[in-house]
Amino acid sequence: MHFVLHKAKKRLQAIILRVSDWAIFIGLVLIGGLGSSYYMLSAGSSLTTRTIGPWSTWKHEGRSDADPYTRAHFARTGTLNLTTEVANTYLTNQDSNGAFLHSSCEYSISGKQLDAQWWSITAMNDRGQLIANPSKRYTFTSDTVAISPDGTFTVTLARDARPGNWLPTAGAGRLALSLTLLESESAIAGDAEGEATPISLPEIKQVACR
User: Could you give the angle at which helices 2-42 and 68-77 cross, rounded to 10 degrees?
Assistant: First the structure.
């Protein structure tokens, strides 16, 4: 009798171990699947997004023939942006060295006149909201930014007032930037393989932190 009970106990332990292994395997599959899906919806991949320096854009944003991941991404964020047939919107929350943007630091956003009929650079918090400030400065556009004689420009992100093109960051904490190019031939038009032609976007350099 004791032998029979011992044998049954061993068999039960083997079954429990096997079920546990399967449960762990299924759990890992589910976690991996959900994690990869979340990443694809949030950050995209080389198939759905395009990255230039710290800037990233969704290739088929606003298009009627957009892929499922692009559609799901904008449905989740609740934004309604212009189609890439008309404009490109680039976003970043990092500087050109890969460090996250933060209002405790000062940054210079520098570049040359962008190849677009119209463009804008906007500072936001990490929730995509405009940063409230007494100066009511939220964005610079190709119509309002001060351009140097050599065709370059510099926009400064800082808490306190700076000369020239200054965007206040107040005490927003984590920051994000939006760069919109309207009717940009080099950004929108594709070559024979469907890839967009090269385009130069502004550099974001950290000046100082406190």
Answer: 80
